[in-house]
Every structure is written in structure tokens, then in C-alpha cells.
Write a structure and sequence with these properties.
2 copies of one chain form a homodimer.
Chain A: H1 2-11, H2 18-30, H3 36-46, H4 52-64, E1 68-72, E2 78-82, E3 90-94, E4 100-103, H5 108-119, E5 122-133, H6 135-139
Parallel strand pairs in A: 3-5
Antiparallel strand pairs in A: 1-2, 3-4
Helix pairs in contact in A: 1-2, 2-3, 3-4
The structure holds a DNA duplex (25 and 25 nucleotides).
Amino acid sequence: MNTDFSTILRSLNLKITPKRIAILDILMNESSYLSPEEIWTRMKKQFRSVGLPTIYRNLEELSERNIISKVTHPNRQLYYYFCANRSHHHHFVCLSCRNVEDINFCALDELRREVKRKHNGKVISHILQVNGYCRNCLNKEGKDNEI
Amino acid sequence: MNTDFSTILRSLNLKITPKRIAILDILMNESSYLSPEEIWTRMKKQFRSVGLPTIYRNLEELSERNIISKVTHPNRQLYYYFCANRSHHHHFVCLSCRNVEDINFCALDELRREVKRKHNGKVISHILQVNGYCRNCLNKEGKDNEI
DNA sequence: TTTAGTGCAAAAATTTTGCACATAG
DNA sequence: CTATGTGCAAAATTTTTGCACTAAA
């Protein structure tokens, strides 16, 4: 498993350090958004000493290079997410278990036309976050816990 | 003008105070997202003394009652926006002047179908923010300043 | 009056920076 | 070796709280 991360890091001209690999590993195995602090908590179980700034610095670097994604939740928490899917897509976030699935649906073309036609503006980027309940949580009947 | 705000506040069982009215007034006349601090700056021009906590408290109350909208920008700043349009819609934010226009386009139905069909999940809410350049800024050629 | 609103100071929470030391290549 | 990465302490930024005082209804 490490080999993959090493390859990724090497290709980005980032040094291969145990902590970087651990961060990627944690994010990859969560398949959910994690806050820097949550990642830190997990890191502290693996390393005798880790600083929170290291987490922030690495997350920022990795997201700048598009290896992980960064999301600002409506609750104001910053979250990071490992996203192997490099093409344009959106996220379906489960309000109950906070798991994330990629949605390949995107209405960018229609959006672009609408904005051009009605507003005479030009769309550069868009962020779509879809909240709901995933298959598992629907089955477990955990669906009315949150908004 | 004040009368409108008074009516709104009365209907929400909020007391009509000069500061509340001023906040609504500022937001209404900006037709753009403002951060609590930006609102505070404007408030200080009108009142001999205002505390930032008052701004936060009022913004929170007003947005809980859906009189104004709250947005967390990707840059991590919290913004508030007066939104007279009470029906479901999205925002087109100009990356240059930060002005906001309502977009009536929404792909909720397709989104819902996609999530049901491919993920077996249920969509509860979604947030779509469209960034781009508005008519004015396109004309002024200010379009390549930002992402 | 009585309840809700406000200012101020102070705390909390989150993120960033500076710098000396450690480690990967 | 040399450039990067890291820990620690400390700062900066943003938001929230407690409490005494004020103002609206």
C-alpha cells in the first residue's frame, strides 16, 4: 500500500515521509471527510510526537496539488477528503454517517447557458454539495437525526 | 424603508431595535455577501458604540429565521446575505466584485433521480454556489484577477 | 415592569508563523 | 551535504460566552 503513496509523493516532488504517508493512508481509509483535528487524533496513535501544524501544512500542500480535496462545511469546519476520482464530479454527503460518495452527475452545461442567457455572466467554477442519507443509514432508520 | 424591516422583525417576535434595522439595511443595500466584520465596520459609522458580538448574535438570529442567508465561502470566511427571494434558488457570485445574483435554475430533480438510481440514497438538501464573472466585470475586463 | 438586547472584557476555537532541530534524497 | 519537513511555542484570526447595564413593549 505504501508504494502507491510513495509513487504519488515522488511524482509531486514531495519527500516521502512517514507522516505524509500516514495522512494519505488515514484519509484513504476513511472514505469520509475528516477535520485536521480528527486526523491529528488518529496520527497521535501512530506517532510518539506529531504537531497539529504538521497536519495543517501537509493537508494544505496535498490539496494544492489536488491529491486530496478540501471542503468547507456549512458548520464552518474545514474538512479534507481523499479523492481518487480526478475528473469533475460532486459529493454526496451522508448526514448521518458523514460518508461521502462521488456523484458523476453535473449540470454545468445548463448552468452555464442559464447564467449566460439570463445574467450575461460567465461561469468559472461551481461547488455543489448534496446532503442526504446513504443506503446504509436509510436501512438503519437513522434518517431523521439531522436536518 | 424602516417600516418594512419593522414589520419583518415584529412578525418574528424580535424587538425592533435601531441596530437590527441597521443590519438589515446594510445587507439589503449591499446585494452582496458581507462578513460579520464588514458589517461591523459599517455599523461603527452609524453608532457611537457597537460590539462585534451584537453583530454575530443578530446575524445568527436572523439567519435562523431565514430572513438572511448564511454562506461559508471556500476561503473560510463566513458571509451573510439578505435574500428577498424566499423560494429555492442558487447564487451566482462574481469573483471580481463579489456581487450576488439569484439563479433560478436548479437541477434538483435530476440530482435526486441520480442519487436514488446509482447510490440508493436520498437527497435532503443541496448547496450550489456558482462562481464566475458578472456582466459588469466582464465588460470592465476585470475577469482574470481570480481563480 | 418584564423580557429581550447590548457592550465590554475575556475565553474558546481554529489556523498560521517563526525558528531551531531532524531527516530524506 | 542541502533542501525539506517537523515540533514546539507563540501569535493571529475568528467566533462565542458571561455578566452587568439598557432599552423596547
